[in-house]
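Hi W.,

Here's what went into the run:
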Amino acid sequence: MTINRLKQLFTSPRSVAFIGVPRKSGPGALNPVDNLNQWGYDGSVHLVHPHVQEIAGLPVVPKVGDIRAHVDLAVISTPRETVPKMVASCGAAGITAVIVTNQGFAEADPRGRELQTAMLDAARQYGIRIMGPNTLGVINGFDRFNTSFMPLRREETPVGVICQSGVFFVGSTQLVGGMGLGVDLGNTSDVDLADTLHWMAADTRLRVVALHAEGISRGRAFIEAARGVSQRIPIVAVKTGRSPAGAKAAATHSGSMAGEDAVVDAAMRAAGMLRVTNTEELRDLVRAFIRLPPMRGTRVAVVTLTGAGGIMLLDALARWDLEPASLTEAALARVQSLSPTWMPLSNPLDIWPALMKNGMKKVYKLSLADVLSDPGVDGVICVALGLPPAEQVTLGAIDVIQEVSAKHDKPVVVWCYGSHAAEAVSLLEHGGRALPVPSLERGAFVLAAMARYERWRSTASRPAA
Amino acid sequence: MTINRLKQLFTSPRSVAFIGVPRKSGPGALNPVDNLNQWGYDGSVHLVHPHVQEIAGLPVVPKVGDIRAHVDLAVISTPRETVPKMVASCGAAGITAVIVTNQGFAEADPRGRELQTAMLDAARQYGIRIMGPNTLGVINGFDRFNTSFMPLRREETPVGVICQSGVFFVGSTQLVGGMGLGVDLGNTSDVDLADTLHWMAADTRLRVVALHAEGISRGRAFIEAARGVSQRIPIVAVKTGRSPAGAKAAATHSGSMAGEDAVVDAAMRAAGMLRVTNTEELRDLVRAFIRLPPMRGTRVAVVTLTGAGGIMLLDALARWDLEPASLTEAALARVQSLSPTWMPLSNPLDIWPALMKNGMKKVYKLSLADVLSDPGVDGVICVALGLPPAEQVTLGAIDVIQEVSAKHDKPVVVWCYGSHAAEAVSLLEHGGRALPVPSLERGAFVLAAMARYERWRSTASRPAA
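Here's what came out:
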């Protein structure tokens, strides 16, 4: 099967059969058919259940063989002992793509490992590809398709997610920050990281890939696929099992080897992947890559309302191998003319004294524009206030930050503080290019990772000597 | 002056004089008198201004010497050239505590350094203690007193804050997570970290101290004061200027030496302080110490709905020198009886298969109770869902987590995920003892720091051999 055909069968099938769907439907029933309907899937849906005639208003047949239509994808959720037989009956019915959702296989006990092997044997006999077991399957907001029994919000965020656990689907807001196309490989018994990276590589609806891996099988294929994706769009990756205890648990959970962490780390880095150490970093970077223009170097300017915040940022820049940009006299001249004569200006650029004299919006607008125009600046970290409405009128700067950022092709991140910071963050979230970050330090982290990716890409795209 | 007298003059004066207060009042005027009124301060307020007779409905006198009453504290906000003279006139009027708010002193230019010296000379002549310059001064939610021109919400959170920048007052929610008593030392020309640590040491309204230091003067006094505080309540500290660039900037900003970072670090640790590397850690720990019972060891149990989350936690526990608790058979027996026979159970304790059979609330309640009762467990990290209302009825566990946590004297932190995680977090915020954490990894960080503090305290309180 070609990559594109495999991708189509699993992520945008024209017809899907659910085998072992719950009888109940409606709120609280955790019935995947409800979720499909809610998303407006327009392919055909077939239901298989031995004991009922109708589920969620759809007709039900007792056996897969009774379906009188071609089926692209079957989703099996029957008790584990029945799964090898169900896979075989799918094969007999001409189905070549199967998702097995249930737990109780290689991640569980010796009998589960036997059953997983038997299932794979049946699949091989019929040329079936299997996703799972132990998975929520696929979600594809672009094409209105999903196989999840947990209700999920449909979105067309340009983010592809490959994971080995459904927690990334249900917790996508907390862990990833958005998801247009998602693949939960579960135990990864057959369809694997390399396969699905190929799916993402050619998908022009995506601008970043988020990857969660517990174990890596077919290491060379994985690394080559990742390199291919990285040349077009970044991959941000959480590879768990860093610690010996975590690695042992990961090997059990996914049934594959977790690998020597340092080796894995080096290989991932060489393939251009951005490996992060926790899920907050994953979310921060995904959000940055879908919003911000590229970070073409490591020189950062800071526009701040607080000297103390500027110092924290100098520490953070050093930690992440960024450097404070040396602002030119041209970039400093206007702010200097607006500041009290005693105010020493450099980078971080503390504009508080200037704005106390001349007003927030005027000073912020001019200084941010001058800093962004400086050819020695690759990206900017802004500090902004979120105050009660009466004060925000005079001390708010979100609108001018958005206005000025839109005119420049450099990344701008913004940290907001104050009693009404949440409102300022919300304004930033819903308009413009500047990205709100949850802390100064994480603003520096984001720009550093973006710079690392651009550096890798510029090297990787050069023809070999 | 005794410590208590100094603290009373600065943080809960019976009478305060504002010298150089703005003429305007009301929303947007940034007038400290408005903020005092809004907080319901019941001491007497005197205003000094050469050109107006009334501000914010209060009478104004042209000179400090014209005030016909005793004044505990003067707040000077006049242009920098006038400050040494103003301090002298405060001295002549019998005032012994002065806050100087304006910028343009040692942090600015050579003239600023001269003026700061002249101001200190005048203060010394009259026995005046000075806080600042370059400060928002003091906020004391307990006694309804503040000197800030930025409007701040009054609260009685049992957190004392000592900082060298007003950003910690205005951004207290983002940076600290709460503040009942706050002292912004600004340039720290006189009243310093050691002084104010002594104020906090004896204040039984406080349960944790958050400290932000750019430079440390009187190092030995600082460390001794910190040790004294730490024996009663923890100090969580951000010491900036870790990097050479940051250290140089910190020395300029506060006018003091930042010190060799490794030396500072070792001294802070020996005094029991919990030094953190960023403000998110500061906020996490402050929130933990005011909410949670002590973490008496390093053995952590995890109750999880996701195997992948459990593995991430094993990595995080290893990173922070915690260990996964070895759960006893007694602690595991009940969950095992509720789980499918194939489910291997250990720590992290994955209860998903059990609850799919027996319901979330029943399984969560029993398993959390059993784990908390295990004598080999010092603290627990819980994973919980926040879903749409229809699903939350069956898959929500916040209520049982709160109920069970309240019965045990061990810290419980909770990471929530799902489309409605914010609602689950809000429930946790507003009731019970279990603390919501923004990620699994930060849950581990919090328990680790709490364990470190308890270990230090048990050693420090032992009599010397």
